[in-house]
Design a protein that fits this description.
The protein is α+β, with helices and mostly antiparallel strands. It has helices at about 30-40, 75-85, 115-120, 130, 140-145, 160-175, 190-200, 225-235, 275, 320-330; strands at about 1-5, 40-50, 50-60, 70, 205-210, 220-225, 240, 245, 285-290, 295-300, 305-310. α1 runs antiparallel to α10 (about 320-330) and α2 crosses α7 (about 190-200).
Length: about 325
C-alpha cells in the first residue's frame, strides 16, 4: 500500500465531535474502508468532510497525478450542464427533443421524448450499446439519433449510452443556434461544461474520448484524477455554490436526486445509493456517480461528505456499495 496523505485529524479514523447545538456527524472507519477498496482492485480513496481533505490513499501502483478513466461516472456531468443551460434559456428539461432533433418529427413514439427522459433513461430508445461500444461507429451521435423506440417514453428504465449521445447532439445543435455573431461561444457539451462549470472551480480532466467526428462521449468519455473529480463532487454537495457564485441554479437542483416510477433508485444520471442501499445506518441521502470497474463519486449533504473511489480497469473485483459503506460507517 502506497501511503500519500492522511491528516492527523484522522488518526483515530473518526470525525471531530460536533460543537454544542450542531448536528453530530457519523464517525468514519477510514482505514477499514480503504483496506476494502485496496483489496478489491482499488486505485485511490479520497475523502472530504466539509472543505477539508481528511483522507487520501493510493493503491496498486496508482498515484495522485495519474488520471483514471471514470467510465459512466462521466454521466453525472450531463444533468448539471442541462440545469445551467436551462437557466440560460438554451433548453428546458421538459421540452420535446424533436423540437431540436427534427428527424424525429412524425415518429409517434420519439416525438414524445423529452430531455428529462434522456437524462433519467426512460426515453424508450432501444439499447444499442453493442454498436456504440464496438469501435466501428464513426459518428456515435448519428447512430444514437437513428435509434428507434422499443417502449413508450417514460414507462421503462433502460440503462445505456444512446440517451446521452442524443443529448450531446441536442446540445451541439442548441449551442450552434445560440452562437453569437462574434463566434465566441462553446461549440459542444464539453466546451460548455468547461466554460460554465469546470474552469470556474479550477477542475480539469486529463482526457475526453471523442469519435471521428469530434463528438465527445457524454456517457463514458472522461479521464480524471481523484482530486479533480472530487472538486466536481464538492460543487454538487454544496448545491452548486462555489465561493460567492451560484454556478448551478437551485430551482431544479433537487430533481437530480429524484427517481422515477420506472426506477426509483436513479435520478438524473445519479444513482440514489442511500435509498436503494440495504445497509442500515448509511445516510439515506448518499448518491453516487458510478462507473465501470467500480469508479465511484459518493456525495452526502447530511454527512458533509465527498468520497472518490477509483478502481483498476479490467481487474476482477468484489467491491460493492454495500460492502464499502458498511466498512466506512462501521456498521
Amino acid at each position: 500500500m502506497q501511503f500519500v496523505t492522511v491528516l492527523s485529524l484522522i488518526a483515530a479514523c473518526t470525525a471531530l465531535p460536533a460543537q454544542q447545538g450542531e448536528e453530530t456527524q457519523t464517525p468514519l472507519e477510514l482505514a477499514a474502508a480503504s483496506a476494502y477498496s485496496e483489496e478489491n482492485a482499488g486505485l485511490a480513496l479520497l475523502v472530504y468532510r466539509g472543505s477539508e481533505l481528511i483522507f487520501e490513499e493510493y493503491h496498486n501502483g496508482h498515484d495522485q497525478k495519474r488520471g483514471q478513466h471514470i467510465f459512466s461516472g462521466t454521466k453525472s456531468f450531463a444533468p448539471v450542464v442541462a440545469l445551467v443551460a436551462q437557466r440560460e434559456g438554451i433548453l428546458d428539461l421538459d421540452e420535446k427533443v424533436c423540437e431540436t432533433i427534427d428527424e424525429w418529427r412524425g415518429d409517434e413514439l420519439r416525438e414524445q421524448i423529452t430531455i428529462r427522459h434522456l437524462l433519467n433513461f426512460t426515453s424508450g430508445l432501444r439499447n444499442n450499446d453493442s454498436t456504440l461500444h464496438g469501435g466501428g461507429v464513426r459518428n456515435v451521435y448519428a447512430a444514437s439519433v437513428a435509434c428507434e423506440c422499443a417502449n413508450t417514453p417514460g414507462k421503462r428504465f433502460r440503462y445505456g449510452s444512446n440517451h446521452l449521445m442524443v443529448f450531446g447532439e441536442v446540445m451541439k445543435r442548441k449551442l450552434a443556434a445560440a452562437k453569437p455573431a462574434d463566434g465566441d461561444h462553446p461549440a459542444d457539451f464539453v466546451a460548455y461544461l468547461e466554460d460554465r462549470i469546470l474552469d470556474p472551480i479550477g477542475c480539469s480532466y486529463t482526457r475526453w474520448l471523442r469519435d471521428e467526428f469530434d463528438n465527445p462521449g457524454l456517457p463514458y468519455g472522461a479521464y480524471m484524477t481523484a482530486r479533480e473529480w472530487a472538486k466536481f463532487g464538492l460543487l454538487v454537495r454544496d448545491r452548486g455554490v462555489f465561493g460567492d457564485r451560484q454556478l448551478i441554479p437551485t430551482e431544479h437542483f433537487g430533481e437530480m436526486f429524484v427517481g422515477t416510477q420506472a426506477n426509483p433508485n436513479y435520478g438524473l444520471n445519479f444513482w440514489l445509493v442511500g435509498k436503494r442501499s440495504k445497509t442500515p445506518g448509511a445516510p439515506k441521502d448518499i448518491v453516487a456517480a458510478s462507473g465501470m470497474y467500480k469508479q465511484r463519486l459518493y456525495i452526502s449533504e447530511s454527512e458533509d461528505l465527498v468520497i472518490v473511489r477509483l478502481g483498476k480497469t479490467r481487474a476482477p473485483s468484489r467491491f460493492t456499495d454495500k460492502g464499502f459503506l458498511t466498512r466506512l460507517f462501521g456498521l
